[in-house]
Design goal:
single chain, about 90 residues, mainly beta, OB fold (Dihydrolipoamide Acetyltransferase, E2P), 5-stranded antiparallel β-sheet, two-stranded antiparallel sheet, 7 strands, about 0% helix
């Protein structure tokens, strides 16, 4: 299993993917749920049928059911053994 923290998935800052490191990639995804938490807004998106949470800023202008461009920093992911749940 792959684990990624919400703060590792954010709104992409622009169209120029070359500004990102090799460990970052951009993708488009529909926002399913928005949960304002004060300083941040959590967005639930679906990647390959799995719900994933992204951390957004209120000024990002996210709207429910709208397509949005995200960037993920995969240098921070963790791998877990599916049988035991332990981090590898």
């Amino acid at each position: 299993m792959l684990g990624i923290r919400p703060e590792a998935i954010t709104k992409a800052s622009g169209n120029d993917a070359s500004r990102h490191s090799a460990a970052e990639f951009e993708f488009d995804c529909e926002v399913d749920v928005l949960e304002p938490t004060g300083a941040d807004t959590l967005a639930v998106i679906s990647l390959g049928g799995v719900d994933v949470i992204a951390k957004l800023r209120p000024r990002d202008g996210a709207r429910k059911h709208e397509l949005m461009r995200f960037v993920a920093d995969v240098s921070t992911v963790s791998l877990f053994d599916p049988a035991s749940g332990f981090r590898i």
